[in-house]
Amino acid sequence: MKRAASPGPADPPPLKLRRSAEASAKAEAGHYVRLKSALQGIAVRPRARRDVRGWRRRAVRLLVIWCAVCQLVTLRAAVPARIVSTSPSITETLFALGIGDRVVGVSTYCRYPEIVRTLPKVGSFLKPDAELIARLRPELVIVHAGPHDVVRQLGSLGMRSATVDSGTLPSVYSTIRAIGAAAGIADRAEGLVADLHRHLDRVRSAVAGRTRKKVLVIVGRRAGTLTDLVAVGRGSYLSDLVEIAGGSNVLDGSGLPEYPRISMETVIRLAPDVVVDAGDMGDTPADRARRETATLASWNAQTAVAAVRQHGIHPVVSDAFVVPGPRVVEVADTLARWLHGVDVAK
Asked: Contact 259/322 with Cβ under 8 angstroms?
């Protein structure tokens, strides 16, 4: 391939073109001089100088406002407009993160906040219904890891999903972060996690140095009876919260399952100072009040239980105790009050 010849000195332009160029240059120079003179005139006038400074300040303020608006629009666009939750803890986390208005479907057992009771239901967290979810046309579906195939089913329909863990206190934090990342609000999620840590640290400090109470937590039983008891063992978020609130889980021994089944004979042998019973709460406020009274009466009949003699029976009426989500701080506050009479919330 031949190289292009290097350009040599340009031929001088014809005389007519040179004169035209010289005239243009003089005209441009004259325009520049007049412009410079005008600007100098502005610079020497104090009032004009103040006007310029005021205009600049107004321009800067407008620019700041415009940038803030652009950031808000970008954030709103980044957050999925339609989100489906498949468990109470996921739903509560979405609302705690400030994007509850984007939730268009929830699980059968979602009750908090109150507004979610009116939203379409998509099955339980163990068996989310892909068909019901698809009908809601979500941009993001959040599910728990579990024995279901919904993630693959949603993927085959071109729907985006995120999977989170559950059951432990660390998983409460990891779920918040995972949802924040999936929804495009990671910074907000980190802020919520930091708030929860700070609150739980306050509970620890409030009960520090006090004698630990032996605590038994019941999360399941046959309705209306004290049989087929399901208690809280090691590894559960409730066991961690008992520890934070100044208690000691009587079923925290190694080798026990996370939620062991026990009998009344075992309860008597364990001799807990406090029994927290979340096994039969009911759905409506009236139903919960009735069951709270019935639960207390059932336990008080068991005079061989140490907690009964020490007036340490506490029926649970808040489903925060059975939902490992942002309301864990409310549970810790309640436990600290029941165990040590400490009111951390004040």
From this structure: no
Distance separating alpha carbons of residues 69 and 74, to the nearest angstrom: 9
Q: Cβ(53)–Cβ(45) under 8 Å?
A: no
- Dump strand ranges (E) for the chain: 83-85, 103-105, 140-144, 161-164, 213-220, 229-231, 247-249, 261-262, 274-277, 313-315
**Domains of the chain with CATH codes:** 83-197 (3.40.50.1980), 209-340 (3.40.50.1980)
**HEC readout, 241-303:** HHHHCCEEECCCCCCCCCCCEECHHHHHHHCCCEEEECCCCCCCHHHHHHHHHHHHHHHHCCC
CA–CA distance, 49 with 55 (Å, rounded to integer) = 10
Q: What is the dihedral of CA 312, 314, 320, 324, to 10 degrees?
A: 50
Q: What is the mean pLDDT of each run of 10 residues along the chain (346 residues)?
A: 42 42 48 46 50 61 56 56 97 98 97 96 94 97 91 94 93 97 97 98 97 97 94 95 98 90 97 96 85 95 97 94 97 98 86
Q: Which of the 8 DSSP states describes residue 80?
A: -
CB 130 within 8 A of CB 158: no
Closest CA to 245 of 327, 312, 344, 346: 344
**Run of H or E including 62:** helix 46-78
The single-letter DSSP state of residue 114 is G
**What's the pTM?**
0.76
DSSP bridge pairs for 57: none
Distances (CA, A) of 234 to 120, 250, 296: 35, 9, 26
